[in-house]
């Protein structure tokens, strides 16, 4: 009788033999395959490196061009065509902050509300709910300039008739990023497991109580990440603002409802960028640096938030 | 059915309120369509629709003006073509690398870094395209007088195309990578067990299995490229030009809209209506592509999730 002790070395021998054969086989791959494999892997790596090099070149070029114009004057001085060395971004920065405040005020309640409806209330077998869903996915990919046309025809003029005021620009940007907020919030809400909902409902909580006390608290990090990414998109958007009245030579601090006009950071950068003189090019690059720093900070915060509070169920 | 003992009007009100938020999105689309259609019909009362769709001269500022939209549609396609020629190989290469080759640690750093590209404002990419890609990359590398030569030109379609390419690489890479990661492990293991090399697994197994997601990412990227405004305004110029020559200045649909519909345009003028007619063309072009892309994404989700 062979005991387990006797079988062990034999098993080990068999395994070692099998491993050696396999490795020998693998080593004997046709030469063409080995070369093709290496070339393929090299090309893939090259693709990644080209994309990263593009990003790096963009950042380095902005710093190389703009560092000479970087100073506190950028934040305190209004724009100027006559004195580029004293020109700044003050009204544009204030305008952008006000625009963004409006976007946040609009997008948080409406975006989360729509996401909650679609995830918690809507019966997705009904055609109208599917229509809403496809519609939101499509809106997320509509070109931003089309939102500019909407803003011009519907908000600035037409039914809402607000005129070329900052609030109209803010509402246009809010509609532009709303689909992003809804999609991100839906994903965060969907990640909350059903057992939480059922447990809460079984204890006698109403649907809204379940949402408010269980689902929202659990999905807030994901929602916040989506909101931050959407806001950073709104902050960098230029094209729709050109259509809804963001003008360039605003030398005073803009207010939300004033008919005197307003400005925004990317629009101001655009205006400096189209001037060929070296000084204005430097100003444009300096403005880009400021925007990139703010946006990178916001994006990093969003990623940190997601990693820090992401719940694994 | 379980019935609550009180009518719960509050719950019903909340239900209605949340539904209203969702309906707002449908209203947005309706508002877009309405605001485009009205002035577009007004435009076609002045300019025959055939002249608009099939004309090749876009000269709204001349007397008499000519509104042949093909000139600026081709301008848009010119830029899009070069952008896609750059972005498809780079984006797909990056996606295959990230999903099949990269270690989890590399993937965790490279993917968010690429996504930073997607978050950079397009006005910054446009500035980069006009003041770096054009003078420092294209002009020194362009072979002499080929296609008319690149020297001394302040605007060209290729510069905008490469800028747009840079912008959409992360869209292609990220969505394709998601689709490839959704392919079940069993397919990899089966192919390896049959003796396939890594490259063969990636190209012949994973790639076809994830094809609908990959195509969706490319269609979505084309839609983005067609709708991009600031990069084409800054780097491609505003000269309507019916050509696919990469080193010519062109005008895209979006740059016509952005440079014409600025604050002081008067509501009733033919230029104002032309902006909406071009906007309608742009909206429907991107709508078709978005619908295809949404459908394809749903298809791969259905197969594997």
Tell me the strand order in the biggest sheet of chain B. Answer: 1-2
| Rg of chain A computed from alpha carbons, rounded to a whole number of angstroms | 28 Å
- Second CATH tier, the architecture of the largest domain in chain A: Orthogonal Bundle
Number of helices of chain B: 12
Q: Give the CA-based shape of chain A.
A: flat
What is the number of E strands of chain A?
0
CATH level 4 superfamily of chain B: MetI-like
Residue fraction in strands of chain B: under 5%
Unreliable residue runs of chain B:
none
The number of distinct helices of chain A, counting runs of at least 4 residues, comes to 12
The CATH topology of chain B corresponds to: MetI-like fold
Q: What gap, in angstroms, lies between the N and C termini of chain A?
A: 51 Å
Please name the CATH architecture of chain B.
Answer: Orthogonal Bundle
- How many whole angstroms does the radius of gyration of chain B measure? 24 Å
State the domain count of chain B. Answer: 1
Count of strand segments of chain B? 2
CATH superfamily of the largest domain in chain A: MetI-like
From the structure provided, what is the oligomeric state, counting identical versus distinct chains? heterodimer
| Broad CATH class of the largest domain in chain A | Mainly Alpha
**What is the overall shape of chain B?**
flat
Query: What about the largest sheet of chain B?
Result: 2 strands, antiparallel
Summarize the structure in words.
With 313 residues, chain A is mainly α. Chain A folds into two domains: 13-68; 70-309, MetI-like (MetI-like fold, Orthogonal Bundle), CATH 1.10.3720. In chain A, 74% of the residues lie in helices and 0% in strands. Chain A is built from twelve helices and no strands. By secondary structure, chain B is mainly α. Chain B has a single domain (58-304), classed as Orthogonal Bundle (MetI-like fold), CATH 1.10.3720. Chain B has a two-stranded antiparallel ribbon with strand order 1-2. Chain B is flat, with a radius of gyration of 24 Å. At the A-B interface, helix 2, helix 4, helix 5, helix 6 and helix 7 of A face helix 1, helix 3, helix 4, helix 5 and helix 6 of B.
């Amino acid at each position: 009788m062979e005991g387990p002790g006797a079988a062990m070395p034999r098993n080990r021998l068999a395994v070692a033999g099998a491993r050696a054969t396999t490795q020998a086989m693998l080593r004997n791959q046709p030469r063409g395959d080995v070369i093709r494999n290496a070339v393929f892997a090299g090309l893939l790596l090259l693709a990644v490196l080209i994309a990263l090099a593009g990003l790096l070149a963009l950042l380095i070029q902005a710093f190389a061009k703009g560092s000479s114009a970087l100073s506190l004057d950028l934040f305190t001085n209004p724009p100027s065509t006559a004195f580029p060395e004293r020109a700044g971004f003050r009204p544009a920065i204030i305008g952008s902050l006000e625009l963004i405040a409006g976007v946040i005020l609009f997008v948080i309640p409406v975006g989360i509300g729509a996401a909650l409806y679609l995830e918690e209330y809507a019966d997705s077998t009904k055609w109208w709910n599917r229509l809403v869903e496809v519609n939101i996915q499509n809106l997320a990919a509509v070109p931003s300039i089309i939102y500019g046309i909407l803003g011009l025809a519907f908000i600035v003029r037409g039914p809402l008739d607000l005129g070329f005021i900052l609030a109209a620009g803010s509402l246009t940007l809010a509609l532009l990023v709303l689909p992003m907020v809804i999609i991100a919030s839906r994903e965060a809400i969907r990640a909350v497991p059903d057992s939480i909902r059922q447990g809460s409902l079984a204890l006698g909580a109403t649907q809204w109580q379940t949402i408010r006390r269980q689902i929202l608290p659990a999905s807030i990090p994901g929602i916040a990440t989506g909101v931050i990414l959407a806001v950073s998109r709104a902050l960098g958007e230029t094209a729709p603002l050109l259509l809804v009245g963001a003008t360039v030579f605003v030398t005073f601090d803009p207010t939300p409802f004033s008919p005197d006009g307003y400005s925004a950071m990317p629009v101001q950068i655009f205006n400096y960028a189209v001037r060929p003189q070296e000084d204005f090019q430097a100003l444009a690059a300096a403005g880009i640096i400021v925007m990139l720093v703010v946006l990178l900070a916001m994006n990093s915060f969003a990623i940190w938030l997601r990693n820090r509070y992401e719940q694994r169920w | 059915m379980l019935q609550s003992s009180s009518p719960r009007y509050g719950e019903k009100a909340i239900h209605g309120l949340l539904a209203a938020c969702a309906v707002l999105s449908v209203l947005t689309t309706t508002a877009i369509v309405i605001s485009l259609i009205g002035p577009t019909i007004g435009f076609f009362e002045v300019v025959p629709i055939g002249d608009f769709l099939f004309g090749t001269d876009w000269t709204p500022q001349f007397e008499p003006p000519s509104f042949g939209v093909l000139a600026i549609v081709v301008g848009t396609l010119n830029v899009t073509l070069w952008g896609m020629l750059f972005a498809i190989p780079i984006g797909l290469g990056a996606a295959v690398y990230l999903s099949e080759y990269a270690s989890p640690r590399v993937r965790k750093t490279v993917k968010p870094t690429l996504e930073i590209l997607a978050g950079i404002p397009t006005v910054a990419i446009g500035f980069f395209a006009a003041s770096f890609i054009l003078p420092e990359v294209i002009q020194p590398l362009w072979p002499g007088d080929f296609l008319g030569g690149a020297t001394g030109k302040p605007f060209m379609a290729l510069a905008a195309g490469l800028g747009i390419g840079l912008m959409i690489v992360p869209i292609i890479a990220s969505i394709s990578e998601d689709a490839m990661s959704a392919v079940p492990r069993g397919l990899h293991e089966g192919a390896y067990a049959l003796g396939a090399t890594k490259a063969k697994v990636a190209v012949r197994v994973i790639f076809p299995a994830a094809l609908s997601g990959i195509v969706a990412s490319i269609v979505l990227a084309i839609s983005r490229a067609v709708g991009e405004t600031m990069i084409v305004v800054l780097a491609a110029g505003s000269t309507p030009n019916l050509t696919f020559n990469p080193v010519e200045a062109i005008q895209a649909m979006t740059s016509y809209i952005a440079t014409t519909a600025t604050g002081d345009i008067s509501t009733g003028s033919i230029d104002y209506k032309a902006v909406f007619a071009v906007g309608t063309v742009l909206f429907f072009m991107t709508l078709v592509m978005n619908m295809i892309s949404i459908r394809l994404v749903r298809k791969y989700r259905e197969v594997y999730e």
